[in-house]
Amino acid sequence: MVSAVHVAEVNPDDYGDGVLYLPLGIELRPREKNDWGHADRPRLKEQVAADRPHGVSGGKLVCLLCLKDPERGLRWMTFVDSGRQGQLFRHETGDWSHAEHVPESDTHKALKERKAATWSEAGARSVVTEEWRPKAKKRPDVFAVGGKLTVAGEVQHTQITPSAVGRRQKALATAGDRVVWTTDRNANNVAWLRRVPHLAVPALDDYRLYRQVDTPLLNVVTGWTYFEAQRCGWADLWRRNSSRCPESGKLVPCGKLHLYPTLNPAEYRPDSDARFPHGSTMHLDHMLEGILNGTWVPYRPPRRDQVVWVPAVRVEQVVAERGPSGDAEQPAPGRRSRREEASRSCDVGVVPVPRPPVVIEEMLPEPEPMCCGLKFPQFAGRSVRSECRMCASSPTWYRLNEAAGFLT
Predict the structure, then answer these.
(1) How far is CA 121 from CA 108, 159, 219, in A?
(2) What is the model's pTM?
(3) What is the CA radius of gyration of the chain?
(4) Where would I find the beta strands (DSSP E) of 50-105?
């Protein structure tokens, strides 16, 4: 089939993050696995699968994500049947796929639809799914416009690298959206999401259990924290249960009340007007409603690479006690070594005294001994020879050690 569009004439900013099919000049969105975003073309999959060859030799399928990246540029793709994941698009060189080009799983779709339904019932002005964000150059799973802010909801069923999570988080946050990640992982299996604002729900066997109609209260196992007021010296969860003062960092208690992180739901005062009540435990719909309305905000504790959701009414006091820790909307930097982070409380505010530079004198080589010529005139001015051992003036005289012992 003759291409309707030449690749040199393609402007990637006119398209989203899918795959460009040059013979028809249309963008294929593999996340919509039923029709690739083209319900008016019922036999589009059969047409692409039969339109061989693909890759460089065929010149038909172009990766729009790589075309938007100046470091990658033009990358040709192939349409294959991977078996376990079904039919998907892969780069011809490297045999790999973008997450945006992998068909959507049932679990991912169920959590995405639950997010959209929750924000719609919570009073969002508009809620869309898989909508392209030109400013971020990303397509968040759910995008909601609330009364105070815009929220981008990301659902991650399969584990990806922390760097890939960070790039997506940075792009959406820079566009002005508050991002909340949701995954179906246990609390001990979300380390790859800890650097961004996240919520984790239990891993269930049946994806239908993630729907609101089947599970009205879906617990959130990690990603949030309450606060309780306790006298200084209480075990601090953010400091490995240390009893140091949150303000000064000293072991001696200051005697004042501080806010300590806790998982005790009795310390939380939920909004009485919330569409989704809090209940006996924290559940997903209540958290999503609070994030949309701004009653829950992301916070990064100092000296930690983790971002958690905290009640907005407590943030000002927590920052006053523990200090600011950077922009929690951006991905947290990686953890440094404890040797670099370590400091003593007595060193706080101390200006180090500069030391004078240490001058190391250059070690010059010792001069080579020369023959004096008193015993052997023919060797005068030359390097010491073996015959010079018979000369009492030579540094190699064979009785030199005996003479030195006699003089001492």
Answers:
(1) 20, 29, 19
(2) 0.70
(3) 35
(4) 61-63, 77-81, 87-91
